[in-house]
Amino acid sequence: MEHAKLKSRSEIPDEYKWRLEDIFPSDQAWEEEFVKVEKSLEQASQFQGKLGGSADQLIACFEWMDGVGSDLEEIYTYARMRRDEDNREALYQGMTDRAGALSVKLGSALAFVVPELLAIPEKRLAEFSKTNPKLEIYDHALEDILRKRQHVLSTAEEKILAEAGEMAEAPSMIFGMANNADLKFPSIKDEKGQEVELTKGNYSQFMESSDRIVRKEAFETLYHTYQKQINTWAATTNANVKADAFFAKVRKYPSAIESSLDDDRVPLTVYDALIKTVREYLPEMYRYMRLRKKMLGLDELHMYDIYVPIVPEVKMEIPYPEALKMVREGLKPLGEIYLKILNEGFDSHWVDIYENQGKTSGAYSWGTYRSHPYVLLNHQDTLDSMFTIAHEMGHSLHTYLSNQTQPHLYAGYKIFVAEVASTLNEALVMEHLLKTTEDPKVLAYLLNHYLEQFRGTIFRQTMFAEFEQNTHAWVEHGEALTADLLSQQYLKLNQEYYGPDVVSDSEIALEWTRIPHFYNSFYVYKYATGFSAATALARKILQEGEPAVKRYLSFLSSGSSDYPIELLRKAGVDMETPGPVKEALEVFKGLVDRLEKVLEE
């Protein structure tokens, strides 16, 4: 097995590792801080029942919460990142569990805060602001809590809802157990004719196989396995959607979707405009599918043919130092300030670069308010790994600039804007490569790679978003989500989104059964809006230069000091209009034109 050759953590040279000592110099220092914070939680009770007493009391409580929140962030992040270095280490497993439990304790100790704030009359809060200017910094945070006043119930009712919340998690937990623990797929024959057990992990590799028989068998085997439990999947979906509808109704929202969007104060028009605009550009998606069909030399393009690369013969080997160089070059349009911080990250042990035994897979950007950001990678010398560096450093610089500019209260940012900085970096690096690549095969490979990002992130996630909107609307109008209804409607959407040149195989009607995000309702649309905003902003940066860069850096420095829609508007994209999504899809259209041209030459 390849994993047997993996180095142990101790065999990786320190120059390729992050430096977590920048958070705590030693495990002993972590332990001392843990004991101190655990003891300090007792102090929460001194504020209970007194928040409406005076401005001073309110500020004292906020400042205490902020301090202990920062301390806990350091404790949890250090323990978890140490665990991620090698998940087999019992010491760090234990430290992570303890940090998680401490976090729950803090949440419980502060459960009184929101109900007490909502009980303070607005007039009294206004008086507080006049008497103590120090309260001004909390204006946005208070507004975000108070604007939901009409949706918050009495303390007793809130307690019941909190208890019910645990039951409402059941559909997601049942799906997770059935999907991850109980579901077993049969074996299929791989490209060499050897029997290989199909797993969710290797399914995507089979979908990219150049052997069509392998792709077809993997596709059919996967969905026929899901088909066997179809009534269970329908029941968990129905229960999940009913829970969303119940909580929205009890909290006096017109619908589940409006309840969900209100968390980010995103109007329903943004969601509707996304679907409407993407549907207007479906002919461009159909054109891309026709091109795929032509390039693969197929009489019929099936759903198991849409992931295989059109230009399979290109193998780009990009060692880590070369990848850094490409990222630096691609991000030059963001200016000297950005590049200086980027280089600091590369040179100052922010990044944990290579895979080792027991290390957490994938990639992420994390860190604490008091430390610099950190990036976990499992770098392979591939194009994808190079883009991963650009992506994760986008998150890290967003975090770095927000931390430098904002108080701890507003330093974190919402999911709605979280993917903008990372995706924008990828877009700029891609534009640089498209401009400087001379080899037609490599150019076609890059164009195909970029088009696949659009297909997967804007078109596919919007199709998911439309499906979610429909399922919730049906339940809210009294319909039951049966397996037949879900499959028929999903197949119909798939046909509409992929167009007449793709055979929507009967198996694809079951795709809804295997999407975990459907249990975190109205989340997937944020992928599409984030990607659209990033693409539109990247275009502005390349066209306008300095003024657009200035607005963008200001956006990166804003954390959550305003609502996501407002922050993006200041950066230069108004998500309440179809403009940004249209701009992104115009880029998609241009890429299809360009790929057609390259392939003809």
Automatic annotation (TrEMBL):
Pfam families cross-referenced by the UniProt entry: Peptidase_M3, Peptidase_M3_N
CDD domains, sorted: M3B_PepF
Keyword Secreted: no
Domain Oligopeptidase F N-terminal residue range list: 116-185
Keywords, in A-Z order: Hydrolase, Metal-binding, Metalloprotease, Protease, Zinc
Single annotated GO MF: metal ion binding
Any GO BP: proteolysis
Xref: InterPro entries: OligopepF_N_dom, OligoPept_F_C, Pept_M3A_M3B, Pept_M3A_M3B_dom, Peptidase_M3B
E.C. number: 3.4.24.-
Family: Belongs to the peptidase M3B family.
Family matches, as PANTHER family: PROTEASE M3 THIMET OLIGOPEPTIDASE-RELATED (PTHR11804), SACCHAROLYSIN (PTHR11804:SF84)
Protein name: Oligopeptidase F
